[in-house]
Amino acid sequence: MKNQTVLILDFGGQYKELIARRVRECGVYSEIHPCDMTPDEIRALSPIGIIFTGGPNSVFAPDSPKCDPAVFELGVPVLGICYGAQLMSMMLGGEVVTGETSEYGETEIEFTPGAKLFDGLDGAQTVLMSHTDRIDRLPDGFSRAAVSSNCPFAAIEAPARGLYGLQFHPEVELTKNGMKILHNFLYEVCGAAGDYSMDDYLEKQIAAVREKVGTERVLLGLSGGVDSAVAAALLTRAIPGQLICIFVDHGFMRKNEGDEIEAAFAGKDLTFVRVDAEEKFLAGLRGVSEPEQKRRIIGRLFVETFREEAAKFGGVKYLGQGTIYPDVIESGTKAAATIKSHHNVGGLPKDLGFEGVVEPLRGLFKDEVRVLGRKLGLPDAIVNRQPFPGPGLAVRVIGDLTKQKCDMLREADAIWREEMDRAHVKADQYFAVLTDLRSVGVMGDGRTYDYTIALRAVITSDFMTCEYAPVPHEVLSAASRRITNEVRGVNRVVYDITGKPPATIEWE
């Protein structure tokens, strides 16, 4: 049976994925779609509710995104957030103005007694505001649900029509009871049954895979990342004995990573093939220093190697992939405009001879994939693995590549991660980079002329932006001391304190 669904209509808001994830955390399935989705397309999905995201535009701009006015006549409850609330008001006959004072950051608001979205909450709450335009006059049938010192309509409602608006962002942590507000909308307004969970998703995907694949075999390229590992575990559970995993070890994995991947699938009811292709990849990258050229060469060599190994298993009809929902959103489908393309989105790879694709994680966010991995019995070393670029250490070694440089970086990176883990430093991603900078140093009584390692640790909620993590000096000192003592060829360690923007999280 299909889960109840809430549609997230995207007006360009940076928090669209966070909204969708919060809805799922409340036990309700959600999907992100473009804001110009037609009423007929919406009816076809039979949603129990619709949420309008915020957005960077002003409703006054001639090219600002809008929805079809008929959306408000579908009889489906609608919650507008920030820009979404302003747009709803304007389209239904209210008035929006540019405020004399903007509201950004944590703000105190007062709820109107009896307001449905705030049932069970104290009258005063702290929320995150981020706006200049504001609602100045309500459409007919609406009433005030909350007010702040600079915003006369911080929340609005028309319960008889199932229409609600919030000038603030309930999806972010800085809105203290935002989850409760969303829960009220989902359960008190939309009548959600709470029929979405990872256990439910797992059961449905197992059934779907079995129905699609039957007794045929599936071939999966196992990269060593979280997504492909969880996809492999799910497929093994669904079709034991029918999965072939090809792990192309290009030699650019982190310390012990290849062995950990192999150990995680040892004894499982699948065929596991580990291809030692380090020499092939190093030879293909000899003398190459430009990062995009590295990526292209690695991608070409990976496909060549994968094709060679796949050819040894004749008659395999299905290709397994670890595609997840953000890949689909970012790659630009009916669900969203293109942000960046992903190799595993968009159909079957040409010339590989498969008849179909099996993507059991295609509807999940990364945090859900990790939960599913734990349910499938994968070790924490795999499930909690930090984001890692496909080309691996090849793009964390700045400049030309050699095995010696990769080994140096492997050791330095392992030390840095060990020290961060030992100190329980709060950071979402941390790794080391081998720069192409060499400098003079002193070790013992001798002069050295060796490489510089750069350490990186960032705090981020979505990996689209980040701040550097304020790592304690004693942790930096311990890592620097160990790296310069234990990694031959390194005599200097620096810490990268640049955010994104202007930098990126990775160096290349």
Description:
The protein is α/β, with parallel strands linked by helices. The chain has a 9-stranded mixed β-sheet with strand order 2-1-3-4-9-8-7-5-6, sandwiched between helices. The longest helix is centred in the C-terminal third of the chain and has 21 residues. The two termini are 45 Å apart. About 3% of the residues have low confidence.
Task: Kindly summarize this structure in a few lines.
The protein has 508 residues and is of the alpha/beta class. 31% of the residues lie in helices and 25% in strands. The protein has 14 helices and 18 strands.
Strand content bin: 15-25%
Category from helices, strands and their pairing? alpha/beta
User: How widely separated are the two ends?
Assistant: 45 Å
What does the largest sheet look like?
9 strands, mixed
Count of individual beta strands: 18
Tally of contiguous helical segments: 14
Oligomer category: single chain
- Outline type: globular
Radius of gyration: 26 Å
Provide the low-confidence segments as ranges. Answer: 332-348
Helix content: 25-40%
Question: Within the largest sheet, what's the order of strands?
Answer: 2-1-3-4-9-8-7-5-6
Mean pLDDT over the residues: 90
How are the SSEs placed, and which strands pair?
Elements: E1 5-10, H1 16-25, E2 29-34, H2 39-45, E3 49-52, E4 78-81, H3 83-91, E5 95-111, E6 124-137, E7 143-148, E8 155-158, E9 163-166, H4 178-189, H5 198-213, E10 218-221, H6 226-238, E11 243-249, H7 257-264, E12 271-276, H8 278-284, H9 291-310, E13 318-320, H10 325-331, E14 356-358, H11 366-375, H12 380-383, H13 403-423, E15 429-443, E16 446-459, E17 467-468, H14 473-486, E18 490-495
Parallel strand pairs: 1-2, 1-3, 3-4, 4-9, 10-11, 10-13, 11-12, 13-14, 16-18
Antiparallel strand pairs: 5-6, 5-7, 7-8, 8-9, 15-16, 16-17
